[in-house]
Amino acid sequence: MRKRPPPGRDERRSFQQLLSDAVADLAEHGYDSQARLDNWLKRLREAAWRSLIPEESMRRTLRDALHREFLRLVEGPGLARKHPGISLYTLAAIKPKLRSELDRRILAGADLIKLNREASINRTLQRFAGWATSIPAGGSAQPQAAEARRMARKALARLPFEERRVIIDQSQKLVASVSAIVAEDGGAIAGIWHSHWREAGYDYRVDHKDRDGRVFVIRDNWALRRGYMKLAGAKYTDQVTEPGQEIFCRCAYEYLYTLRDLPERMVTRAGREALDAARARVGAGPATARTFNREAVPA
Asked: Would strands 215-217 and 252-256 be described as parallel, antiparallel, or unpaired?
């Protein structure tokens, strides 16, 4: 008979060691009482939590990763390059709002990691309980102990990988949401959807591939209100999921701020007249990126 340590020594044992003890005990005695199973489930749950990277350490890893992504976007030239249609003054003015979005993403990511941990531990214990309750009282000559251990720890073994994926996904969501805030405050009128479906190994969504290169219009934007642009068969951005909204989506909008960036079919007669008037004002001088945005085109 295998000698097992008393419950008081569980803290010194790894989850795998305790799982082996539990499997051996159930193989020997079988499912002879719910109390026996409940005792092992309680001890295994505590050991599973102890085996994970401390929650505060995981939060710090998440916070550091998102903060690095935020600095790359906001403090560097990244946003100015992605949004050439708005001024540096506007970008500076909305930085507090962008930082609030960073804080929101950190909280969301931390909550998701915690929920994933709880779900993984519950799946692990559910597998163990399913196996344990199949062993008749008195034990079994062929309990398939190795398979039981493998099956029980499967969900827990994937957890570090899933937590890394959460950090990657939250980073992508941060990029998309920061860009959307800049576009909204900067007066973007539309966005061109860009998908990574051509990238080798990328598990793209078919409907996202179909959106690639298509223009989506921001509802109630300044150009629509002034009658300078029309849908011309395009959809509004709020009629489809946003880039990065669905899990592990890496799509992005290339935001458009000026009438001259739109396809010709989307500019109305009034819009073309406004463009002509704006060109006349700048004369022979070179047109800038802001020549035909909401700040320059007359109402």
From this structure: unpaired
CB atoms within 10 A of CB 109: 24
Write down the domain spans for the chain.
7-165, 188-282
pLDDT tens figures, 170-221? 999 999 999 999 999 889 999 999 999 999 989 999 999 999 999 999 999 9
Whether the model pTM is above 0.85:
no
User: Nearest-CA neighbor of 145 among 155, 137, 156, 134?
Assistant: 134
CA neighbor of 116 nearest in space, from 128, 106, 124: 124
Question: Which residues make Cβ contacts (< 8 Å) with residue 138, sequence separation at least 6?
Answer: 29, 30, 32
Q: Over the range 255-266, which residues count as b (16 or more CB within 10 Å of their CB) and which as e? A: bbbbbbbbeeeb
What b-and-e string marks burial along 4-39, b requiring 16 or more CB atoms within 10 Å of the CB? Answer: eeeeeebeebebeebbbbbbbbbbeebbeeeebbee
- By the 10 Å C-beta count (0-12 exposed, 13-18 middle, 19+ buried), 135 is classed as buried
The end-to-end CA distance of the chain, in Å, is 89
